[in-house]
Design a protein that fits this description.
The structure holds 2 protein chains of 2 kinds.
Chain A (H helix, E strand, L loop, with lengths): L19 H6 L4 H6 L4 H11 L11 H6 L10 E6 L8 H8 L1 H15 L3 E6 L4 H17 L14 E6 L9 H8 L23 E5 H5 L1 H7 L1 H5 L9 E8 L5 E6 L2 E2 H8 L9 E5 L8 E2 L7 E2 L1 H6 L8 E6 L4 H15 L5 H18 L7 H12 L7 H15 L1 H15 L3 H13 L1
Parallel strand pairs in A: 1-2, 1-4, 2-3, 5-11
Antiparallel strand pairs in A: 5-6, 7-10, 8-9, 8-11
Chain B lengths: L1 H17 L2 E6 L2 E6 L4 H6 L24 E4 L6 E2 L10 E3 L5 H16 L15 H10 L16 E2 L4 E3 L9 H9 L5 E4 L6 E4 L12 H5 L5 E3 L12 E6 L8 E7 L2 E7 L12 H5 L14 E2 L2 E2 L2 H5 L10 E5 L5 H15 L2 E5 L8 H4 L10 H6 L7 H14 L4 E5 L11 H9 L2 E6 L12 E4 L8 E4 L4 E5 L12 H12 L9 H11 L8 H5 L3 E2 L19
Parallel strand pairs in B: 1-5, 16-17, 16-18, 18-19, 19-20
Antiparallel strand pairs in B: 1-2, 3-4, 3-5, 6-7, 7-10, 8-9, 11-12, 12-13, 14-15, 14-20, 21-22, 22-23
The chains are: A alpha/beta, B alpha+beta.
């Protein structure tokens, strides 16, 4: 459990790290001073070369994303820090915002210089009261010191930063939903194209980066892309914060070198399964990624490509561990409820389908499941996935589908038990014949 | 969102101006359309319908209904046609050639319907509902949904004219976008999330802008209904006729449903050049406001009922006398044509005035409404029956009547003198005049008792013919309501009077005959077809000597 490079959490246990003096005493704000002397395009090249990928969940290469921004559009370029961290099981950005707010600001400044952006905004989820306070304090300190505002470090570069609090909607973590919300509208994702890099906040080019992504920038610019690439795997360079939760002895936020074996992570960092129970399943990347059974973990490493090979995703690093007592139908219902509740309601398949799926899981749990229910859910998922405005449709169907696929017997046993009881009843036969007809 | 789409729209416009054409394939057919066209319009140009709810060509792209999904060869996912601009070489499959598209459409309809109440039996939209139509056409399968439907507000007034049924709403947001982008009054918004989402009036507001009823037209389902016309008729019991609104001189295209002589609903008819698909509340809800409740059906001279022919003889006294002729601005163009001929030949010395008054318009009214209540004043001007200063000419004529300097007065049309101008001085001026005739329709007209001869006319809703709007667009107005026995069109009355005085002006069987005769009489108009005047109309300013429109821009196919 040692041996992981500490890039983001290096000073996390220093009590004064959140203050300007604490941060500066450990070398803070020295990187940005150097970066401000560099050609912005070189900064983008360096970040591209580092292979840093977006840590919010999608894993899109950060430097490439920056490269989409038109440089002479005549409009301002906006930089947004996505600190809406709303994926269930994910709480890594919270640690950075609370304990390393200046690291996030320095990362923002590096990105801002690369993009030649003079305005940025930290979009923090509404429930994050403490991270909000810490971030605002840090920004105020930075302004006082002249690290934000006009002529930063005498470079002639101007950059202003504001903080905006969300109002508690999951979908405002989706970058165009975030932009709408920031503009004062209802948090609903936009149609793409156009993409935010070209048409974002107030119609101007906009980059939205996750907090953790931005926090990695000072280290990369200080130590170079090659040093970053030396950590992790070829396709997943660097370190990743993992928010480990669930039935483990040591839940918490861990920084791991990408490519670290899952089983070792559970046994060592997480301290194994609690109460001497057996591991049943994990959701490795936040609740919207597919579940892995305990028997599927052998040889799987914690990085983008290995998880993909195993049929799941690294996602946001929200690592949820479930022991043998967990009822997977309950898991499916819980997540179906979450996602149907968080559907913004804009487009038809997600608005209507999400609730329908939840209602079917409900009836299965309530002992009113019907023979065709699993098929019906599968079919509804197919009707939603790929047919929505934003990726929320996929987020919604993935837990439902993967729970049923990985643990079919748990669903079937509930439905079969019911079937035995209701055999011969009028309503039951009517429903099943109707289902048979549609299938 | 409007900003992005605004940018897109501008792009579209510029591209169209450049006339760059793009070739693509839709369902195996080669399609050539101007660059910037979206796929729904591109498909429509070759007669392929891509079903849609939220898309409207004059509103921003919302892309939320997911009904217009199409398949693009080489792309893994279906795309929405409304948000996809044509590109060279695209190979598109619609429901006509792609099972995936068919499935997606059926799925969308299934989803839309799970929480939609089955109250078609009492819904005003039933029979002209896109949800019904599409379900029959693109899904038509029984629902697999067995759970309790979501319940929402059933009858919430959004404003003085519109009521919302939240359960029927499919969240297409056309109404919201209309109020945001067209009237720019932003009364409406979405409240709540997921399947609890409802359309709601924004805090402190009311849907009371001058075009508010338009949202009902835009609503593809029965969620928004007219407060005035709720539950008053199944649409299939009414006869729907396409016509022109006679409220002002904008000449908005309308579809009017009439049942038993009563207007039961007025809808906007799309005309890209005139009113798009918008209509003002005053015109829509007041469609029958110029239609008198009780009618004059018999001619009278000095209070005694007479034969029409006898009444027509009253015109004889005007020949060669100085005559003031008050003309209603809602007469047909053909009627002005014949009136002009009649006055020139049989009255000789006359001065005509049009009842025309301007009023102040608010910002929303200015989008559509003209500052007058004179639908066809341009038609009168075509025959020089009104001068440049319509308003002061009309005022002067009224003053002359009051002062007793006008001794021979002919009043043609119920609105030839505005109700508000009937003062006792005016009426006594008319009563004291040497000769006076009124061709009117309202049995309660203040003129009765003051004017010597009364001849019953048909109203503008009871005849068909031509109107010229404020911008000189020639359009066709159709007959909507049956006229009472005993009434005649003004043109027929004038023609009979002419015959009585010597010789008829024209020999015509009916309104249509007259229209055709009129068109043939003018070389510039002789090649025009009534059908094109009904569908879009023709700008008179764009006609050249040979008659044909110089550009096709003036004529808009629907």
């Amino acid at each position: 459990m040692t041996g992981h490079k500490k890039i983001l959490l290096q000073h996390i246990d220093k009590p004064d790290q959140y203050t300007m003096s604490g941060y500066e005493s450990r070398g803070g704000y020295s990187t940005i001073k150097k970066v401000l002397g560099m050609d912005p395009l070189k900064v983008i090249e360096e970040v591209k070369a580092s292979g840093l990928r977006g840590r919010g969940g999608a894993g899109f290469p950060t430097g490439v994303k920056w490269g989409f921004v038109p440089r002479n559009s005549g409009k301002p370029v906006y930089l947004l820090q996505n600190a809406d961290e709303s994926e269930p099981g994910t709480f890594k950005d919270r640690v950075l915002l609370e304990k390393e707010p200046h690291l996030c600001i320095e990362g923002m400044l590096i990105a801002a210089w690369a993009l030649q952006s003079h305005w940025s905004c930290v979009y923090i989820r509404g429930e994050y009261g403490y991270p909000y306070v810490r971030t605002v304090e840090a920004i105020n300190e930075a302004y006082k010191k002249g690290y934000l505002g006009e002529n930063i470090f005498g470079s002639g570069f101007t950059h202003h930063m504001v903080v905006h609090r969300g109002a508690g909607a999951y979908i405002c973590g989706e970058e165009t939903g975030l932009i709408e919300s920031l503009e004062g509208k209802k948090g609903q994702p936009r149609l793409k194209p156009p993409f935010p890099a070209v048409v974002g906040v107030y119609g101007a080019p906009t980059v939205v980066n996750n907090t953790e992504t931005l926090a990695a920038l000072p280290w990369i610019m200080e130590n170079g892309a090659a040093a970053y690439r030396a950590i992790g795997t070829e396709k997943s360079p660097g370190t990743k914060l993992i928010s480990a939760s669930g039935h483990i002895n040591k839940p918490g936020v861990y920084e791991i070198d990408l490519g670290y074996p899952v089983e070792r992570f559970i046994a060592e960092e997480c301290g194994g399964i609690w109460n001497g129970k057996k591991l049943k399943a994990i959701i490795p990347g936040g609740s919207s990624v597919p579940v892995l059974r305990a028997d599927e973990l052998k040889g799987v490493n914690m990085d983008y490509e290995s998880f993909q090979q195993a049929g799941t995703m690294l996602g946001s690093g929200g690592f949820i561990v479930m022991d043998e007592t967990v009822d997977m139908v309950d898991v499916a219902l819980n997540l179906a409820h979450f996602y149907s509740h968080e559907s913004c309601g804009q487009c038809t398949p997600c608005r209507e389908g999400g609730h329908w799926i939840e209602k079917i899981f409900h009836r299965i749990i309530d002992g009113k499941g019907q023979a065709g229910d699993m098929k019906l859910i599968e079919n509804l998922c197919a009707q939603i996935g790929g047919h929505t405005i934003c990726p929320f449709g996929e987020a919604l169907i993935t837990p439902a589908l993967s729970c049923m696929k990985k643990f079919p017997e748990e669903f079937l046993s509930k439905i079969k038990a019911v079937e035995g009881e209701t055999k011969g009843q009028g309503s039951g036969s009517r429903s099943s014949s109707m289902l048979a007809q549609v299938q | 969102m409007s900003e992005i789409n605004g940018a897109d729209k501008n792009g579209t416009k510029e591209a169209k101006e450049a006339k760059e054409m793009v070739e693509l394939t839709i369902d195996g057919q080669k399609v050539v359309v101007p660059a910037g066209t979206n796929l729904i319009e591109a498909a429509a140009s070759v007669g392929i319908t891509i079903p849609h709810y939220c898309y409207h060509k004059d509103l921003s792209i919302a892309g939320n209904c997911r009904m217009c999904q199409i398949e693009i060869k080489g792309r893994p996912k279906l795309e929405i046609a409304c948000n996809m601009i044509v590109q060279k070489g695209l190979d598109i499959s619609t429901q006509g050639s792609s099972q995936a598209v068919k499935d997606a459409q059926a799925a969308t309809l299934e989803f839309i319907l799970i929480n939609h109440p089955l109250d078609c039996t009492v819904c005003d939209q039933s029979g002209h509902c896109k949800l019904q139509d599409y379900h029959y056409e693109y899904n038509a399968k029984p629902s697999r949904f067995e759970e309790e439907k979501v319940h929402k507000v059933k009858a919430e007034p959004l404003g003085p004219n519109v009521i919302l049924d939240g359960e029927r709403c499919i969240m297409c947001t056309r109404c919201i976008r209309f109020c945001d982008e067209i009237t720019q009054t932003s009364e409406l918004g979405l409240l709540n999330r997921g399947d609890q989402t409802v359309i709601a009036v924004n805090k402190g507001k009311e849907l009371n802008n001058a075009l508010s009823g338009t949202v009902v037209d835009l609503c593809p389902v029965g969620a928004l209904t007219h407060r005035n016309w709720r539950f008053n008729s199944r649409i299939w019991y009414a006869k729907e006729t396409e016509s022109i609104c006679t409220g002002c001189s904008t000449g908005c295209n309308v579809k009017v449903a009439v049942r038993d002589g009563q207007v039961v609903q007025v809808k906007a008819k799309y005309n890209a050049e005139v009113n798009k698909e918008w209509l003002c509340d005053e015109g829509r809800y007041g469609f029958q406001r110029f239609q008198p409740k009780t009618r004059i059906t018999e001619a009278a001279v000095k209070g005694s009922t007479v034969e029409l022919q006898t009444a027509l003889d009253s015109f004889k006294a005007f020949k060669g006398q100085d005559t003031v002729v008050f003309l209603s601005p809602d007469l047909l163009l053909e009627e002005f044509w014949l009136i002009k001929k009649f006055l020139d030949r049989d009255i000789q010395k006359f001065k005509t005035v049009i009842a025309y008054k301007e009023r102040e318009l608010n910002d929303v009214e200015k989008i559509l409404v003209s500052p007058d209540y004179a639908a066809n004043f341009r038609g009168a001007q075509v025959f020089s029956l009104g001068g440049e200063k319509l308003e002061s000419e009309y005022k002067d004529a009224l003053a002359a009547v009051k002062a007793g300097t006008a001794q021979n007065i002919i009043i043609i049309g119920e609105r030839a003198i505005l109700r508000e101008d009937f003062s006792s001085e005016l009426l006594s001026g008319i009563a004291k005049a040497k000769n006076s005739i009124a061709i009117i329709s309202d049995a309660e007209s203040p003129l009765i008792g003051s004017v010597q001869t009364v001849i019953p006319e048909r109203t503008c809703l009871e005849k068909a013919g031509l109107y010229v709007n404020r911008k000189m667009r020639l359009q066709y107005i159709d007959r909507l309501i049956d006229s009472p026995v005993g009434t005649n069109q003004v043109w027929r009355i004038i023609n009979m009077a002419a015959q009585r005085l010597g010789q008829e002006l024209i020999s015509c069987a009916n309104d249509r005959d007259l229209t055709l005769r009129y068109l043939q009489s003018d070389p510039r108009l002789s090649t025009l077809k009534i059908a094109e005047l009904k569908n879009g109309g023709v700008l008179l300013t764009e006609l050249n000597e040979a008659g044909r429109s110089k550009t096709q821009g003036g004529v808009t196919a629907v």
